[in-house]
Amino acid sequence: MLGLGLDAGGTRTRWALADAQGRCVARGQVAGFTALLLHASAGRVMLAQTLQSLAAEVVQAAGPGRLAGLQAGITGLGEPDGPIGRQLQALLAQHLGLSPAQVVCDSDIAAAWHAVFRPGEGHLVYAGTGAIAAFIDADGHLHRAGGRGPLIGDEGGGQWIAREALALVWRREDAEPGAWSRSALARQLFDELGGADWAISRAFLYGGESAARRGSIGQLALAVARAAQEGDDDARGLLHRAGTELARLALALVHRLGPKPVIAAGRVLQLHPAIEAGLRAALPQDLPLSVQQPDTALAAAVRAVGGDR
After folding, report:
1. Confidence of residue 212 (pLDDT cuts 50, 70, 90)
2. Alpha-helix runs per DSSP H in 230-306
3. Beta-strand (E) ranges in the chain?
4. Which is nearest to 195 in space by CA: 214, 181, 213, 182?
């Protein structure tokens, strides 16, 4: 029998299959999905299409009747035992031919935390499209800081980086139209968007379903990283500030729950060294910090098949 693990985010959904010995049997990825998609009819259609693609890939890789269970970490799932969590549990079970009892849905941050720590061990700062810090105590209770979404939080995450970069560029355009042509940051952003007209930025920022748009906006952080590689001071300064914001999340948990080793993870940490530099500069030197990229999907698959983690 095999366990299936999911790491579902706004940009992509990674899946892995593990056997009873914890070995990876197969892995892949499909389109991203979040719990927020269930709040709108268009989102529910997108979710159904993604789950159909997922089921087709998994069944082909695993073979019929070989799934022992599923553990899923899902972005936007704040209350796994609430109505949205139960809906996702039922939908995943239906598409994958499992009973709801064989499906465990949790938040993406809890799934990532379990991939690197055991209860009570340490603090995880995770920066992907959004940003959040988490600690799970010995009783299994999740403690969090940040992760409040794009309107009031997610500082240091990919979408925040993209938003701050675009805001900086357009504020300069207000003062000096055409200034973008002298900025590597602006050129990279506008190349990604397809043009320097405000109408193009406006359509990208405010058009379409917000839940689906969130991951696409976060991808603009890649353009910021490219500008930083070119030596753009604005881009480097912004990425350093992103690291400082991530440190603030870790320090909030340290203040509440005590000093413990900190692991920083997520795709944002891979964008540019300035982010890790900002993070390290803002943390106490005696606080252990490591940067890792946990295999959340595989760790979840091992738990799904009955493994320790």
Report:
1. very low
2. 233-257, 273-282, 296-304
3. 2-8, 12-18, 24-31, 67-74, 103-107, 123-127, 131-136, 142-146, 262-265, 289-291
4. 181
Tokens of 128: 């992907």
Amino acid at residue number 297: A
This prediction has a pTM of 0.84
Tokens 């993070």 identify what position? 279
- CA distances (Å), origin 279, targets 3, 27, 247, 287: 35, 31, 5, 12
Q: Tens of pLDDT along 2-42? A: 999 999 987 789 999 999 999 999 999 999 999 989 998 99
Ordered by where they begin, the domains of the chain are: 2-116+295-304 (3.30.420.40)
Alpha-carbon span 266 to 112, nearest angstrom: 9
187 sits in which H/E element? helix 184-193
C-beta separation of 270 from 183 below 8 A:
no
